[in-house]
Specification:
Elements lengths: L1 H5 L5 H19 L4 H18 L1 H27 L4 H15 L8 H22 L8 H9 L1 E2 L2 E2 L8 H6 L4 H29 L8 H21 L4 H24 L6 H17 L5 H13 L5 H12 L2 E3 L5 E3 L4 H4 L14 H8 L12 H10 L34
Antiparallel strand pairs: 1-2, 3-4
Helix pairs in contact: 2-3, 3-11, 4-5, 6-11, 9-10, 9-11, 12-14
């Protein structure tokens, strides 16, 4: 760890200078040699760094959401070119370029913090050795060595030997208890940060391997932090615990105010927004007006949660405008949602009704034909001469005798 930290020695002086400036402020309040003065100086360093990294955090959120949206397309490319890795990579890069997505953007805040993290580790390691470092002279180093946070020196580690801990004027049990509690809190904050992201701010309609990877990281990261934490000085644990808490709070704010479309957080947000709008009859707040404006711009591309919100406004007699405001409206819910009612298919008519409808003039009643009428029609259809009977015989009709079947004579008239 010391070798890696020495690679970032170029930023050691700015980090130590920031700590010294905050130490002057807090030292005047709590005393220059107290753990509060030095501990709050480290916490303030974290806050300064994280405020500077807010633009990168916003970029990380956009990149993460774009990656979630692209997962179905990426999966299709992998299945289509599973036997051609080169073509698969080319298509992936083309997809990233067309959508303006950078897979590394989701790691930007962590990568940007790394130099400051290792620089602080380098500063605290020199404090533990009693050496001057950066903007800290020997007097400040000695003052920092005397600072204890709940009985543990800020330069002590969980794995330090009893002799090294005694040289810092502390007991080994106190150091290990404090560091163990801080390691557990650091790992727990990392776990809840990732869990909050996976359970609330992920589009539940997208089921891809990327989501499974994120779920695995939710359990892997805390374990990594716990293993590495035993080699961190107390001051570095304060730094990392503070940055984890900051990330958790910052992410919670983003989830509540700008959730991912299709996620559970969006459903909860739009439910609260609908209740507020229907209660007050207007959209209060610039952020909320921006959210309504984006829903209007989506039009027919809204997801199920967003359509439910628009329908809820219509049921309350309101309609969303393009500028994010709402006005009174009598438009039915189906039309407000942009979905028309399904066209009713006409019932299938019988053959007799269709024939009647196709006959010009007034409709005629259709009655069933008797057997005699059917037989008469069959006789009329036969040719006058030379025709064959229904039985296939070619019997010729006698002269003067009526064609067709003859009526049998009465038995008395023979």
């Amino acid at each position: 760890m010391d070798t890696i930290a020495s690679l970032f020695s170029f930023i050691t002086w700015p980090v130590s200078w920031v700590i010294v400036q905050f130490h002057k402020l807090y030292g005047a309040i709590f005393g220059p040699d107290t753990g509060w003065a030095w501990g709050l100086s480290i916490v303030s360093l974290v806050i300064v760094i994280r405020v500077c990294l807010i633009p990168l955090f916003v970029k990380q959120i956009k990149s993460t959401r774009n990656m979630q949206v692209l997962q179905p397309k990426m999966k299709a490319i992998q299945e289509r070119y599973k036997n051609d890795k080169q073509r698969q990579s080319e298509e992936m890069m083309k997809l990233y370029k067309e959508t303006g997505t950078n897979p590394l953007s989701s790691c930007l805040p962590i990568l940007a913090q790394s130099p400051f993290f290792f620089a602080l580790y380098h500063v605290l390691s020199n404090i533990a050795s009693g050496k001057e470092i950066g903007a800290m002279n020997q007097a400040l180093v000695d003052s920092a060595r005397q600072a204890h946070i709940f009985g543990a020196p800020i330069a002590a580690k969980f794995m330090d030997s009893p002799d090294k801990v005694a040289a810092l004027d502390a007991s080994l049990n106190s150091v290990r208890i404090v560091t163990a509690i801080m390691i557990v809190m650091m790992s727990a904050s990392q776990f809840f940060t990732q869990r909050q992201l996976m359970t609330k701010n992920v589009d539940l309609t997208v089921k891809t391997p990327y989501m499974q990877q994120q779920k695995m990281l939710m359990y892997i990261f805390p374990v990594i932090f716990a293993v590495m934490g035993i080699n961190f000085p107390v001051g570095v644990l304060v730094y990392w615990l503070t940055t984890n808490v900051w990330t958790l709070g910052q992410q919670m704010y983003v989830i509540n105010q700008n959730p991912t479309p299709g996620s559970k957080a969006q459903e909860q947000y739009l439910t609260r927004l609908l209740k507020s709008v229907t209660t007050h009859g207007e959209v209060r707040g610039r952020t909320r007006r921006g959210a309504v404006k984006r829903l209007v711009e989506k039009g027919s591309n809204r997801n199920e949660i967003e359509r439910k919100f628009i329908t809820g406004l219509a049921k309350a007699g309101l309609a969303a405008e393009a500028d994010g405001s709402v006005v009174k409206s009598d438009v039915p819910a189906a039309e407000a949602d942009g979905t028309a009612a399904k066209r009713q298919q006409p019932k299938r008519q019988t053959k007799a009704k269709r024939q009647t409808a196709s006959t010009p003039g007034p409709a005629k009643a259709v009655t069933a034909k008797t057997s005699l009428e059917k037989s008469a029609e069959a006789q009329d259809a036969e040719p006058a001469s030379g025709g064959k009977s229904a039985s296939g015989s070619a019997r010729q009709a006698k002269s003067g005798q009526r064609k067709g079947p003859q009526r049998p004579k009465h038995p008395t008239k023979k």
